[in-house]
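To: structure subgroup
Subject: Chain for Friday's discussion

All,

I'm putting the inputs and outputs inline so they're searchable in the archive.
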Amino acid sequence: MHRLIASSFGLGLIPGRLWHSDAGAGTFGAALAAAAGAAVILTHAPWWVTLLLATVATAASLWSAAPFARGADPGWVCMDETAGTLIAFIGLTSWWPCLAALAVARAADIFKVLPGVKAAERLPGAVGVTADDVVAGLYGLAMGWALTGLL
């Protein structure tokens, strides 16, 4: 059960099956969150629905990654990316801000050059696996809300 949830219901295992590498698994996890974000926009759900989804995904990441979080963050574990991307979408209701939030959150997670992302990753265990994506998601959220304010 841990492996199924940690891999965002198997999405994080796809790159390993396709190209025998975990490279890109996080993007598969982020795609799950993007699909959920699109559903929220299309159904005009209230902002708290995304907050609830992000909270559940963050808790699921902390729980499911724990058995695999010894040393380096396993590449196929991507519920953390799902959680971080959902955080980036909280309260956003239109496409351009969501796309910008997604791009910033993914870039912040991949490159880890923005303040706090790399430090969060160094935290021990499942907290470190999840925290860098939460911080990256907050950067994405800031961009999404900034763009919403401009539009």
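Points worth raising on Friday:
The longest helix spans residues 125-150.
The CA atoms of residues 54 and 86 lie 5 Å apart.

D.
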